[in-house]
Design goal:
CATH superfamily of one domain in chain A: Winged helix-like DNA-binding domain superfamily/Winged helix DNA-binding domain
Structural class of chain A: mainly alpha
Oligomer: homodimer
Helix content of chain A: 55-70%
Shape of chain A: globular
CATH class of one domain in chain A: Mainly Alpha
Number of strands of chain A: 3
Order of helices and strands of chain A: HHHEHHEEHH
Strand order of the largest sheet of chain A: 1-3-2
Chain lengths: 169, 169
């Protein structure tokens, strides 16, 4: 007893059958919904690519920022990653526990910690970037360079719509 | 003692000063990074917009799908939302506890539950969509319709790069 998918069904008796398409037409009006769904794929594929290296999206991002900005303060990293300081501690502990980074007190500011990569951290950075380039090729899925640049421009526009920091995680 | 931002600093002694720009040049090569950062803003602004209604991104999406697809099975909703079944239970409990939806056994399949909106659920759906339209205008931030459509096309391409379901949360 198959029925065609409808945007809004009128009664419980017209429940979608198992296997029948669920309508998300209302949600699809919104660009935010499309971004969310694409992000789910990006995150899942990236985490899969990083798994053999023992990294996840957020620990990878943290490692890259620390290698590119040696001496980075924890507070600067929290801001750059859009995470709360409390969540940052878990990330830092994980990288430090694997001897990928060091955390040292800043001589001129006893309350601040400076983060630096170890040699092992720099090596994992190189391997991680290689894995992420493979991931990136997969998710781009044949997208033209022109479209890619249009997307990056659009994402920046959205980013700028908030005053900057979002702490979205 | 300000220094220009550099993509990679050579030693801990050249640590970025407090307030100095942290370089994310390496991460910015990747479209996934731009999508993640835009998604952080989308999620934060959407949750802010929905807060007065007692909804979050995921409970809002669930309510919309249930109103648009009355009689929806829990398993279908889990798939449509890209969430694990265990996480779905929390979402359903929240909506049912507020009398926005009902969860009834399916007579023809005793193991399945059908989800239906209540009148209160349908009313909140209308208010939520109004709030989300305001949110959408904010995040679009003057984006042209042409760019918006290009972004939606690109997000679908990324979505299709995985076999479909990602269970990314």
């Amino acid at each position: 007893m198959k029925r065609p998918a409808a945007a809004r069904r009128d009664a419980a008796t017209s429940a979608p059958e198992a296997g029948q398409q669920v309508s998300d037409d209302t949600l699809r009006e919104f660009i935010g919904y499309h971004i969310k769904r694409a992000f789910n794929v990006v995150q899942a594929d990236l985490n899969q690519a990083l798994k053999p290296l023992g990294l996840r999206m957020v620990t990878y991002s943290a490692l890259v920022l620390i290698v590119d900005n040696p001496g980075l303060r924890q507070s600067q990293l929290a801001e750059a990653l859009d995470v709360e300081r409390a969540n940052l501690v878990v990330i830092i502990d994980e990288l430090e526990g694997r001897d990928l980074i060091t955390r040292d007190r800043v001589p001129t500011d006893r309350r601040a910690y400076a983060l630096n990569p170890t040699l092992a951290g720099r090596r994992l950075y190189d391997r991680a970037l290689e894995a992420v380039r493979g991931h990136e090729r997969r998710i781009l899925n044949g997208m033209t360079e022109e479209t890619k640049l249009a997307v990056i421009g659009a994402m920046s526009l959205i980013r700028q719509s908030s005053g900057g920091g979002s702490k979205g995680g």
